[in-house]
Amino acid sequence: MTRAIPQGNRTILVMAGVAVLSLVAGLGLSQLITSPAKAEADAAPPIAGAVTVPVESRVIANDVTLRGDPSYDDPVEIRIETGEVKGQPVVTGQVPEVSSTVDAASVALEVAGRPVIVLPGALPTYRSLQAGVAGPDVLQLKAALATLGIDAGKADSDVYDAATAAGVVELYRKVGYQPPAPGKELKDALKGAQDAMRSAEDALSSAQIALKAASSGPTEVERLQADNAVRAAQRDVAAAEAAAASGDPEAPSAAGIEALREAVTVAEAQRTQVLTGMGTSAEAAAVASAQRALADAKAMHTEAKAATLTALPASEVVFLASLPRRVDNVGVKLGAIVSGPVMTVSGATLEIVASASADDAALLAVGNPGIVTVLGQDVQVTVKAIEAPGSTSSSAEPEGEGAEGSEAPAGSGSTAGQSGRHTVRFQLGDLTEEQLSTLQDGGNVRIKVPVSSTGGEVLAVPLAALTAGPGGESRIERQDAKGATELVTVETGLAAGGYVQIVSSQEPITAGDLVVVGARGAADASDAETEAAG
């Protein structure tokens, strides 16, 4: 028998069920609905932790990095003096190829069948050199010939003499050409001078013979003839006196006898003159005159002979300040008439020319080693020269560069004259054929020159790990294994490449210790300092 539930109790049970269902629904909905406060809290970033890096043991090096262009130094134009060329100055041979090399005693060009010889010297050709001329160009020629092992006479004499001419002859033989020959007029003048000198020599010889004869006295025949003349005159006087004394009607008169006595006196005087000699003044005068004539003839011969000595025509030589040289371009061809520059040459040694700021140039010195990368390989370079702004040298190189590994964008343009910028020339080390060809094709390259280094591994931290204390001292914030940090005062050294050397520290620091870097580290350090001060 089923027992009925009272109406009041049924109402209570229904209400309890509804309450339970409402509670369950509320709990379910609470898992799906987020309050604004909790949503904001969930959206906030997490509290930042310290960013740390380990203390390193490394080499720190400070570099100056530049960009430069390959270049051949000191380009110059070669011009040929053609005023003395016989006929048209036509190019007849020896035309060089671009990129070929000319050196001392090279033939740069052949004009009208004659060579244009290259010699070392800073003074340009401005006249032909021949016997008798003197000046600095003669000294330069002698010095140039000496570098080729050719004797050209006294090196300190600025006179072009026979020895110099002989040296020039040897130069032409060395380059494979006949030396310049004198013209017909000069040869005829020399022959006439030689004939005149021989005639003067003969005249002097005759005068000297006559003087010698006059100085040697009378011969025996001349003495006998003089004695006989005196005795004959005396006999005539004696015979006339004897006839007059004997009363001979044919005897000479007193006047006749006196005349005969005078004849004796004359004969005796003539004998005395013969025996003592008549003097040599006339013969001596003749000898002196003949000597003067010979001296004049010899001077004329010397002058004529000098005129025929081998000369060095201005059209057959060109002096260049430094050798060897590389031919950059040729402005003439076979059969052309020379007019203006015939070619441009530059230094035969390839170099790298870069531009540096005044600050970077101050860090460099001639002889500093560096590195340039060519075809993926490092090539050693050396600072060859540092030219201040306004230097006459020019170069094509980029504008920018920098120390501590910074690098400016590439570009080109003459920068030697720019305000505050210096031209730096680098000498290249050994290159392979491929590397040389690559550089000769042009293109900007990067040069790195170490200017300071620790020389070995030292303790180093990133620059971002440093903070400044209230007294300006440098500090780092070191973190221990539990995450706690402490400020340590340090002494720094060389800084480069984003790192700084730790020379010493207030507390011991070793490689591997963690230090705080970045803004958080600096903020934490500041907070720690504030707390320490409080």
Distance between the termini: 87 Å
Shape call: rod-shaped
Helix fraction, binned, reads: 25-40%
Class per helix and strand makeup: alpha+beta
Unreliable runs? 392-401, 404-418, 520-534
Tally the helices.
11
Quick one: biggest sheet? 8 strands, antiparallel
Tell me the number of strands. 23
Instruction: Give the rounded overall mean pLDDT.
Output: 83
This entry's quaternary arrangement is: single chain
Question: How would you briefly describe this protein structure?
Answer:
It contains 11 helices and 23 strands.
Describe it for me?
By secondary structure, this protein is an alpha+beta fold. Helix content is 37%, strand content 25%. It contains eleven helices and 23 strands. The strands form four sheets. Strands 1, 2, 18, 19, 20, 21, 22 and 23 form an eight-stranded antiparallel β-sheet that branches. The protein has a six-stranded antiparallel barrel with strand order 3-12-16-14-13-17. A hairpin with a 2-residue loop joins β13 and β14. The two termini are 87 Å apart. The relative contact order is 0.17.
Entry keywords:
534 residues, alpha+beta, eight-stranded antiparallel beta sheet, six-stranded antiparallel barrel, 11 helices, 23 strands, 37% helix, 25% strand, rod-shaped, disordered C terminus
